[in-house]
């Protein structure tokens, strides 16, 4: 790229040097200082204008590859989940129930679908098990990452839909020569969760350009829930011997009230197995002195597993009313048990079939080709094409066919009501056990063209156009679609849409100290029409060491394929039945989509200060606020249940339940009536002296309100955690030229909750982590450390979504040792 002569302020130099020397820093761009009076124009996350100044009006956190290695992180999701700006609920390695093996990021707790994920500034294809609305972060191998930039500001005017809460831009390694081999492994102090992998990265000069190719393999081991002391025994009313109308066999030919429960933690994962193979490559070359060709290719194959306790089967059985009734269509109870009833509910934990084993095989492909160049007026242009595709097949072994099970009970009442174990071969012969087979996928194609430059008066500008096509589908097993499975019924999903966009951006230096930035964008969707957004920002330098900044912006999020075209999908949510009719805390809720959904709309505002306090000491502080209207969301089912119980008939109708507590058809439909408001403060301070570098990164949540309910400082199994204070401390010490020590601490303030009418509170939690990196020689480095040094256990959350806690918020694996070594040649 072309270099330009441009004097830099002291504050610019300070920020750039802080990035180069620190592990993470809340600043504007990952840049390397060139010469004090000469710097290359660079792309800045959150702007289309390539610029020389590193401080823009929007706050960005940068995480370097060096920090990732020293911290023992093996996935992008693990890196992002520890950030103070992350909140709410997301998916990761410890999401055993319903994750599909995917990993996601949730900035500000505003929902994973409201955080845009980019790779080298371009969109990643939605990925997972089909018709997904977010990116599976497993598809991006850690070994290819140069840095991760987190834009903590609304950016729809620059990037379009989905950037309401912010942007995660993953920058990959380029201009690399030589070969680097890395091998890593980890294990918990309990001797389980063994994980490991290796990567090979090779770069060479080729045909007047640079070719980089790599391979990464990783294998994450499982941890069983019951192997952790803090996990209480599960208590399910679905028991292996079966129950009928709440009664169980008494062993003497009669029945008695159920007086036992089933511990489902023995068969459920706390950490889920995951095997990844990624192949990637990039090629950059100058076709002419002013034209460059760039090609990026990536492929990731994922084999993932989750394991849950055997299927809880719930079967409605007709009771024979007369002796003449066909016994193959009802059960003959005589006068043993409530003969007046027409129907009885039979519940059985199908331990004889074995645990439910969920398996996913996903293949994600992405390719991007771009031409860029510099004109005689020093303006820069680029055109690009990006294609992404995700194919998935997933299975659920030891699923139960409800219709066949019902008929088998009618035909073999003596076997099913004996209370004895049932031979698995019998279940197979009766067609009761089957493997659920589902498939899905996502596809994306983008054409883009842009033009940007700087005038003689230092006015920066950019404009361009994009055309994007998105499609997705998910086809459940035919048995599931027909409602014949003992799991929840689910309809297929299929659909697509296209969008054409134009945008413009300007950076205007009003004075030497005062700069105004503005951007606007118009997107025209095939599904709902047009949406216009804008952004207005400013920076003002009081001195070379003190700058203030602010951004006001509008944003939007278009409904995804699954939201528009998704049919009924059942989910067993953890809920408190105020009537007391439900025997378990997991209650079936039917989720449905709506083709008439409109886009969400948002307004955001940030204001902050960047200050170099003294030599080696700098700080940033930013206030932020996001307001979403017409939010695509589902009503809070628990809240509507409570209102219905208290006599609000409209609430009963909203979720399709009856005033007397009939929850059998409870439904939650996506609508545009939602509203979300959140605000807070980000504060970062970094200090570097002699061999030490210290950084404190903190987020204070002032408010988080959704549909009139305040969640700041609360936690539960459905919404996740909204701790009001989260902070990361990093201390790095270059003990010698070859030895670096790193200490990090992750602080989560305690939160409040309410489970089944009883208030509870979690305590403050601090996770301590240490590591050391030693350069044996110029080519060979050894890194090792301990995550969760003091084996801090997760806080108890009575209405948590697994293990009596919220695994997304707290560490449920425990103390983990890791080691890695890399060799360059």
TrEMBL record:
Keyword Signal: yes
Top-level lineage group: Bacteria
A Pfam family hit: Plug
Entry keyword set: Cell outer membrane, Membrane, Receptor, Signal, TonB box, Transmembrane, Transmembrane beta strand, Transport
Domain TonB-dependent receptor plug as annotated: residue spans: 55-167
UniProt keyword Oxidoreductase, yes or no: no
SUPFAM superfamilies: Porins
Membrane topology annotation: Multi-pass membrane protein
GO CC, alphabetical: cell outer membrane
Database matches in Gene3D superfamilies: TonB-dependent receptor, beta-barrel domain, TonB-dependent receptor, plug domain
Signal peptide: 1-31
First-listed, main subcellular location of the protein, grouped into a coarse class: membrane
Residues annotated as domain TonB-dependent receptor-like beta-barrel: 360-789
Subcellular location: Cell outer membrane
Family that this chain belongs to: Belongs to the TonB-dependent receptor family.
Name under which the protein is recorded: TonB-dependent receptor
């Amino acid at each position: 790229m072309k270099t330009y002569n441009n004097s830099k302020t002291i504050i610019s130099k300070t920020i750039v040097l802080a990035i180069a020397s620190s592990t993470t820093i809340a600043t504007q761009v990952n840049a390397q200082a060139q010469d004090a009076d000469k710097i290359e124009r660079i792309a800045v996350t959150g702007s289309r204008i390539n610029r020389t100044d590193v401080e823009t009006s929007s706050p960005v956190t940068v995480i370097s590859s060096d920090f990732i290695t020293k911290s023992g992180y093996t996935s992008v999701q693990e890196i992002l989940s520890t950030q103070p700006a992350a909140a709410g609920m997301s998916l990761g390695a410890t999401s055993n129930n319903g994750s599909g093996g995917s990993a996601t990021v949730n900035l500000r707790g505003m929902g994973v679908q409201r955080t845009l994920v980019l790779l080298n500034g371009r969109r990643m294809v939605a990925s997972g098990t089909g018709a997904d609305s977010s990116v599976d972060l497993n598809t991006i191998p850690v070994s290819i990452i140069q840095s991760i930039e987190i834009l903590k500001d609304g950016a729809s005017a620059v990037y379009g839909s989905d950037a309401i809460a912010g942007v995660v831009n993953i920058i990959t390694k380029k201009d690399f020569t030589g070969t680097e081999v890395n091998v890593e492994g980890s294990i918990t102090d309990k001797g389980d969760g063994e994980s490991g992998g290796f990567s090979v990265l090779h770069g060479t000069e080729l045909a007047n350009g640079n070719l980089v190719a790599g391979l990464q393999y990783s294998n994450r081991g499982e941890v069983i829930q019951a192997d952790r002391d803090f996990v209480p025994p599960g208590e399910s009313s679905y028991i292996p011997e079966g129950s009928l109308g709440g009664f169980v066999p008494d062993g003497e030919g009669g029945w008695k009230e159920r007086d036992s429960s089933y511990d489902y933690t023995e068969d459920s994962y706390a950490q889920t197995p995951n095997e990844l193979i990624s192949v990637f490559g990039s090629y950059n070359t100058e076709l002419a002195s002013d034209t460059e060709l760039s090609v990026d290719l990536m492929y990731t194959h994922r084999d993932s597993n989750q394991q849950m306790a055997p299927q809880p089967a719930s079967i409605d059985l007709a009771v024979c009313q007369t002796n003449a009734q066909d016994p193959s269509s009802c059960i003959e109870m005589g006068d043993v048990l409530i003969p007046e009833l027409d129907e009885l509910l039979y519940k059985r934990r199908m331990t004889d079939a074995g645990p439910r084993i969920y398996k996913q095989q996903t293949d994600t492909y992405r390719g991007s080709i771009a031409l860029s160049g510099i004109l005689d007026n020093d303006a820069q242009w680029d055109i690009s094409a990006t294609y992404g595709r995700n194919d998935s097949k997933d299975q659920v072994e030891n699923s139960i066919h409800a219709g066949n099970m019902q008929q088998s009970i009618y035909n073999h009442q003596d076997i099913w009501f004996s209370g004895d174990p049932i031979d698995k071969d019998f279940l197979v012969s009766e067609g009761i056990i089957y493997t659920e087979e589902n498939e899905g996928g996502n596809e994306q194609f983008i054409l883009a063209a842009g033009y940007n430059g700087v005038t003689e008066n230092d006015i920066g500008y950019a404009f361009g156009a994009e055309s994007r096509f998105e499609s997705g589908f998910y086809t459940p097993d035919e048995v599931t679609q027909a409602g014949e499975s003992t799991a929840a019924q689910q309809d297929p999903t299929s659909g697509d849409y296209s969008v054409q966009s134009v945008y413009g951006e300007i950076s205007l230096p009003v004075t030497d100290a005062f700069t105004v930035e503005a951007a606007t964008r118009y997107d025209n969707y095939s599904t709902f029409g047009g949406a216009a957004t804008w952004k207005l920002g400013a920076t003002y330098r009081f001195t070379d060491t003190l700058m203030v900044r602010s951004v006001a912006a509008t944003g939007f999020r278009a409904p995804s394929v699954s939201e528009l075209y998704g049919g009924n999908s059942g989910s067993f949510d953890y809920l408190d039945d105020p009537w007391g009719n439900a025997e378990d805390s997991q209650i079936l809720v039917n989720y449905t989509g709506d083709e008439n959904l409109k886009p969400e709309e948002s307004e955001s505002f940030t204001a902050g200060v960047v200050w170099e306090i003294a030599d080696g000491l700098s700080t940033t502080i930013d206030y932020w606020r996001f307001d979403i209207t017409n939010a695509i969301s589902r009503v809070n089912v628990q809240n509507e249940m409570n209102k219905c119980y208290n006599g609000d008939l409209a609430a009963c109708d909203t979720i399709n339940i009856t005033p007397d507590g009939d929850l059998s058809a409870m439904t939650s439909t996506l609508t545009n009536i939602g509203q979300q408001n959140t605000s807070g403060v980000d504060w970062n301070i970094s200090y570097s002296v002699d061999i030490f570098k210290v950084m404190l990164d903190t987020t204070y949540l002032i408010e988080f309100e959704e549909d009139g309910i305040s969640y700041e400082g609360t936690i539960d199994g459905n919404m996740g955690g909204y701790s009001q204070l989260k902070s990361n401390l990093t201390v790095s010490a270059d003990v010698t030229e070859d030895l670096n020590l790193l200490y990090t601490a992750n602080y989560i303030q305690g939160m409040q909750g309410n489970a089944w009418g009883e208030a509870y509170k979690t305590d403050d939690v601090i996770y301590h982590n240490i590591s050391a990196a030693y350069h044996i020689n110029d080519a060979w480095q050894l890194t090792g450390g301990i995550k969760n040094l003091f084996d801090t256990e997760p806080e108890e959350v009575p209405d948590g979504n697994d293990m009596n806690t919220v695994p997304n918020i707290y560490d449920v694996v425990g103390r983990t040792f890791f080691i890695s070594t890399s060799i360059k040649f």
